[in-house]
Specification:
The protein is an all-alpha fold and about 250 residues long. The chain has helices at about 15-25, 35-50, 55-60, 60-65, 75-100, 115-120, 130-150, 160-170, 175-190, 195-220. It is globular, with a radius of gyration of 18 Å. The two termini are about 30 Å apart. Mean pLDDT is about 85; it is low at about 220-225.
């Protein structure tokens, strides 16, 4: 994949460009499964709070397909260039906002009654509070980044664990331990409105960025011969297994 150079100064995407990006991502050739614009926004923040610097060539494949399957040679070059340019602009704006302001403006869409009506009763998201239903796609994208690049999860830091719990309260709780944690968060740190929840999300991600900044700056000058494999990438040992089922499982 050819990665264009970032501009020296970047301007955030307009509403029309966010819509364009969402439509462009939806045009990713099948059977690849791309992120949508909202999940992409969470994913990029998950990339930026890692304790290592992740270059575009490492994270872009996971945007166009959740398993990082390469784009086919037949993919339209103009479509790929425009989509990549918009993604990198948003990535650069988020990086600058976190570094300079300790703040950023996440792409969160309000969850409507029509959206709720489309959920199946068997969908775990149907049981979430309306506020969490609105934040769910963004947090899913953030979670995708942390599962793909587990460096952050491997840091033994209780402050990081607490911050992640504040985000993951918006994901469906699948185990009893998770349900108990959500109950504690609702009791000790209630969120009355969607605006409150968005503010809490921003503060939490900014806290994670601060908690990992020392690690990031320390390794910024270290160059890898190749990008660290994601959990769903083929293991570089040549076993034919996914990295998470091979050397990444250790």
């Amino acid at each position: 994949m050819s990665i264009p150079e970032r501009p020296a100064a970047v301007v955030d995407l307009s509403d029309a460009e966010f819509q364009e990006l969402d439509e462009l991502l939806a045009q990713t050739p099948e059977p690849l499964e791309p992120l949508d614009a909202v999940r992409l926004d969470g994913f990029l923040c998950g990339v930026l709070v890692q304790p290592v610097i992740l270059r575009p060539e490492a994270f872009l494949p996971h945007v166009f397909d959740i398993e990082a399957t390469p784009l086919p040679d037949s993919a339209d070059a103009a479509w790929q260039a425009r989509t990549t340019a918009l993604i990198l602009r948003r990535h650069a704006v988020l990086a600058r906002s976190m570094a300079e302001d300790g703040w950023f403006d996440p792409l969160i869409l309000e969850f409507t009654d029509e959206d709720a009506a489309e959920l199946s009763e068997y969908d775990p998201a149907a049981k979430l509070p309306r506020i969490s239903q609105a934040l769910l796609p963004w947090v899913e994208g953030f979670h995708h980044a942390l599962q793909t690049f587990p460096d952050l999860l491997e840091l033994p830091d209780e402050a990081i664990d607490l911050a992640l719990a504040r985000l993951y309260r918006h994901l469906p709780a699948l185990a009893e331990e998770e349900r108990e944690l959500v109950a504690v968060m609702e009791r000790e740190h209630p969120l009355a409105t969607l605006d409150d929840a968005i503010d809490d999300l921003i503060v939490t991600v900014a806290d994670l960025s601060d908690l990992t900044s020392e690690h990031r700056y320390r390794v910024e000058q270290i160059k890898r011969d190749a990008p660290k494999p994601g959990r769903n990438d083929p293991c570089p040992c040549g076993s034919g297994k996914k990295f998470k089922h091979c050397h990444g499982a250790s």
